[in-house]
Amino acid sequence: MAGKTSKKSAQVAKKAAAKRVAAKAAKPRKTAPKSQSRKVAKPALLAGGNPQIAKADGDAPVQAYIAAMPGWKRDVGRRLDAFIVRTVPGVRKAVKWSSPLYGVEGQGWFLGILTFTNYIKVAFFRGTSLRPVPPGESKTKDTRYLDIHEDDQLDEAQLAAWVKHASQLPGERM
Known about the structure:
Shape: elongated
Radius of gyration: 28 Å
CATH class of the domain at 48-168: Alpha Beta
Number of helices: 5
Order of helices and strands: HHEHHEEEEEH
Structural class: alpha+beta
CATH topology of the domain at 48-168: Aspartate Aminotransferase, domain 1
CATH architecture of the domain at 48-168: Alpha-Beta Complex
Mean pLDDT: 84
Strand order of the largest sheet: 1-2-3-4-5-6
Strand content: 15-25%
Helix content: 25-40%
C-alpha cells in the first residue's frame, strides 16, 4: 500500500508541476523581451570627437559613423559620403579602426575619413600619386591629407579629380 501512495503522490506532483509551467507560459509578459527592450547606445566619441564604431563592411556602419559625428562635422560627413558615391559609382564602404574607408572591390581602400576636434581629415592613401598632391603630409610615404575646417569652402572640382584618380590607383589592403 505504501508503494501505491508514493506512486500516486509522484503523479500528483508531476501534474501540479506541469500546470505551473503551463500557467507561467500563458502569463503575459510585463516587459518586452531583452532583445527588444534594449536601447541602442550612442557611440562613444574617442579623443578629438572621432566616433567609436565597430569594425564592419557596408554602408550601414559608415552611416552610423556619420550620424555620430559631432556638430557641423555630421553635415560635412554626409556631403563627403554622397560626393564620393557620386564620383565613384559602386564604391565599397567599411568602418575599420573607427574610421570610414572607401575602396574599389579587388583594389583595396583609396580613401579614409577621420574626425578631429576642429576639423575632418580626408586621407588619400596613394596621395603622392595625385596631381596636385593634397596639401597635408603624413608619416607614411604615400599618404596625403586634406583637412576640412568648419568654414572652409571646398574646391569640389579638385576634390572630385582627387577622388576619381585615387579610386583608379591600387589601394591599401587593410
